[in-house]
UniProtKB/TrEMBL annotation:
GO biological process, one term: endothelial cell migration
Transmembrane segments: none
Top-level taxon: Eukaryota
Source organism: Cynoglossus semilaevis
GO MF: calcium ion binding; calcium-dependent protein binding; transition metal ion binding
Name used for this protein in its record: S100 calcium binding protein P
Length: 88
């Protein structure tokens, strides 16, 4: 897979989940939960534990509007990629 395919996939995945409820270009807590559970099964333990999800949402939602923007989401994916890289 090329890097541009991976980028397109990041954008399409965000859009698909963000469109479910509320604003079409941000993730609510439920949308974030569904995205993490379906697309990042390695984090499923964290998402299943509701305290974990609260914390994840709080960490991602930098501007504290209870919605996760594409910028906040991509920052999260990049940080996670850095962690995975270090432990590969
Ligand atoms: Ca939304």
């Amino acid at each position: 897979m090329s890097l541009s395919t991976a980028m397109a996939s990041l954008m399409a995945t965000f859009d698909r989940y963000a469109a479910v409820e509320g604003k079409k270009d941000t993730l609510t807590k439920l949308e974030l939960k569904n995205l993490v559970e379906n697309e990042m099964p390695c984090l499923i333990q964290k998402a299943k534990n509701s305290d974990g999800l609260e914390k994840l949402m709080k960490d991602l939602d930098r501007n504290k509007d209870s919605e996760v923007t594409i910028e906040e989401f991509l920052t999260f994916v990049c940080s996670l990629t850095c962690v995975c890289y270090k432990y590969k």
